[in-house]
Amino acid sequence: MRVLAQGKIEQLFDILNRSTELIQKAKDQSYLDSFIETLGFIQSDDEEDDELTEADTKKLTNIYADFNPDDFTAETFRKAIQMAVLKAIRVDTIQANYQLTPDTIANVIGYIIAGIFHDRKELSILDPAMGTANLLTAIYHQLQTSIGVTPTISGIENDDAMFELAADSVELQKIHAELFHEDTIQNVLAPVVDVVVSDLPIGYYPIDANAKGFATHSDTGHSYVHHLLIEFGMKHVLPGGFGFFLVPSQLFQTSEAKQLLKWMQGKVYLQGLLNLPKELFANAAAQKAILILQNAGDGAKQVDPVMLGEFPSFKDQQAFTKFLTEIDDWEQTDLL
C-alpha cells in the first residue's frame, strides 16, 4: 500500500511540477509564484490565462487532460505540495523562514499530542506562525488516524506567498480551517484553543511599537520574535492547555531569556524540552528542540520531573522507539 501511495504522490507532483515549469518559463517568473498560479488553476474551472499564448494554454490543458482531484487523498495533496515547495526553495534560493518542518518532526509532535489528548472527542489547534500550514495539516491528519479526532484548526501567517500556499493547500485537502492573513504580533483576534503548535521563526521582530504590549519584549532594541510568539500562543491556550513549539535548543541560555522566564512564572509550566537529533541540523548552533508548555489552571501542575532529553537518531529505529516509550510513560505517570 505504501508503494502505491508513494506512486500517487509522485504522479500528482509530476502534474503540478510540469504545470509550474510551463508557467514559469512562459512568464519568466519564480518557480514559487508559478506554483501558486498552478494551485489556483487546478481549483478553477476557468482554463484561460490572458498572459499565456494559445500554444502554452493548449499545453497546460493537455497536462490536466486526465487530472481529477478526487483521485488523490488529502495526504497525497499535502505531500505533493510539500515536494513542490521544497523544489521552489531550491530553485528560487528562498530565505530560511520558508523551510518546511520535516514530517519526521511533525510526526513526533503529533505523537506527543495524541498521547496527552488520547481520550478527547474534540480538539482545537492554532499555529500562530503557520507558514505553508504543512506542520498544522500533518498533525491534523495524524490525529485523525491515531486517536480518531478531527481537530478544529486555525493558523496565522503574515507573508503573502506563504499564506496563499497555506490557503490553497488546506482547500485542496478539503480541511475546514480558519486562516488569518495578518501579523501575529499586532495581536490578531485569534481563537482560544486546546493546543498551540508552531515551528517558530527565529530572529528579531522589526517593529518595536508592536512588541511593547508583550511582557517578553526587549527593554532595549528589537525583541526576539520567537519569544513574542510563544507569549501570544500561550495567551490563546485554554487553562490547562498545551503549547508545543520548535525553538532553538539554547532558548534559555541567551541574555534575553530572562524576560521570557519572568513572564512564564505563575502563568505557564515548563513541562518538557526535547532536543531534536543533531544530524538534522547544519551545525550545533542551529539545533532545535520541542518546547512543551502548559497553561496554569484547570488542575494543571508543574510536572516532576520535567521531560528533558535528546531524541536519538531517527535512523536508529530501536533507540527511537525506546525514547517514545519513555515519553509515553512520562505522560501517563507524571504529566496527566
UniProtKB/TrEMBL annotation:
<dbReference type="Pfam" id="PF02384">
    <property type="entry name" value="N6_Mtase"/>
</dbReference>
<dbReference type="GO" id="GO:0003677">
    <property type="term" value="F:DNA binding"/>
</dbReference>
<keyword id="KW-0808">Transferase</keyword>
<dbReference type="InterPro" id="IPR052933">
    <property type="entry name" value="DNA_Protect_Modify"/>
</dbReference>
<dbReference type="InterPro" id="IPR016843">
    <property type="entry name" value="S-AdoMet-dep_Ade-MeTrfase_prd"/>
</dbReference>
<feature type="domain" description="DNA methylase adenine-specific">
    <location>
        <begin position="101"/>
        <end position="298"/>
    </location>
</feature>
<keyword id="KW-0489">Methyltransferase</keyword>
<feature type="domain" description="YtxK-like N-terminal helical">
    <location>
        <begin position="10"/>
        <end position="88"/>
    </location>
</feature>
<dbReference type="GO" id="GO:0009007">
    <property type="term" value="F:site-specific DNA-methyltransferase (adenine-specific) activity"/>
</dbReference>
<protein>
    <submittedName>
        <fullName>Adenine site-specific DNA-methyltransferase</fullName>
        <ecNumber>2.1.1.72</ecNumber>
    </submittedName>
</protein>
<dbReference type="InterPro" id="IPR003356">
    <property type="entry name" value="DNA_methylase_A-5"/>
</dbReference>
<dbReference type="GO" id="GO:0008170">
    <property type="term" value="F:N-methyltransferase activity"/>
</dbReference>
<dbReference type="InterPro" id="IPR029063">
    <property type="entry name" value="SAM-dependent_MTases_sf"/>
</dbReference>
<dbReference type="Pfam" id="PF21106">
    <property type="entry name" value="YtxK_like"/>
</dbReference>
<dbReference type="GO" id="GO:0032259">
    <property type="term" value="P:methylation"/>
</dbReference>
<dbReference type="InterPro" id="IPR048375">
    <property type="entry name" value="YtxK-like_N"/>
</dbReference>
